[in-house]
Amino acid sequence: MSKILIFCEGITDLFFIGHCLDKFFGLEFKYIYNKKKPLNECIITHKCEIVGIGGCEKLTNPLYLDRLRDNTAEGGRNIIIFDADFGPEAVGEKKGTGNNGFVNAKRKLEDIQKTKEVEFDFYLWHNNANDGEVEDLLAKLIPENKKKLMDCINNHKECLSSLEIDNLMVPDKKKVLGYYLYSLQHDLHDYQNNDVWHLSITDISDLGKFATFLQKYFASNNVNDGLAEIATNA
Questions:
Q1: H or E stretch including 5?
Q2: Tens digits of per-residue pLDDT, 21-52?
Q3: Rounded alpha-carbon distances, angstroms, from residue 226 to 3, 84, 206, 229
Q4: Within the chain, where are the H helices?
Q5: Which of 65, 80, 81, 138 has a CA that sits 20 to 30 A from residue 109's CA?
Q6: Tell me: the pLDDT tens digits for 93-135?
Q7: Crossing angle for the helix pair 147-162 and 173-183, to the nearest 10 degrees
């Protein structure tokens, strides 16, 4: 049976993509973890499977390439969703990280498509156009009434950064979001709680862009009406 196979990086991506598909397209998902296999799998009905594999450097593993090729041979469609990360021109802790920025990550994926003869579409966080990570998109989803909390956390981070103390641990973006959720006593991977996350495709343009990308692959009859407007103005 043909299906949509999505490869992403890790557990944050798995649940965020799953919750987006549920919210935008009405696709309820079941999370499955098998410690005996090098895959964290999030199954969404019988039509879609999301698999956490890591980043670009993992995609050339024959195990993953074969899954993509097999899915194509069975009439399915493949999607890769990774962080773009940051290129060498970035500054500070962001400089030259991971997939090395949007331009370099895009080039890597296009090279894999060609040299490995594998078919897939791809989307690079945070907005498929600029350097960034999924956490950059998540930071934009903080509800208006919670932004003062984030300001407090970020001010604390800046204070720590100003201290001249050896080996001081200063939280990165992932840790900052973790503190935000910890402060609200909220589950780390539940993006459907409207009190904690504002998943609005009309208010957050980068989320609308991601939803429009997904719309190409999933039925649109259950999609938020705002997608039509976003697609028209894209």
A1: strand 4-8
A2: 999 999 988 888 766 655 567 878 778 999 99
A3: 26, 26, 13, 5
A4: 11-25, 56-59, 62-73, 102-115, 134-139, 147-162, 173-183, 205-215, 226-233
A5: 138
A6: 566 677 889 999 999 999 999 999 999 999 999 999 999 999 9
A7: 130
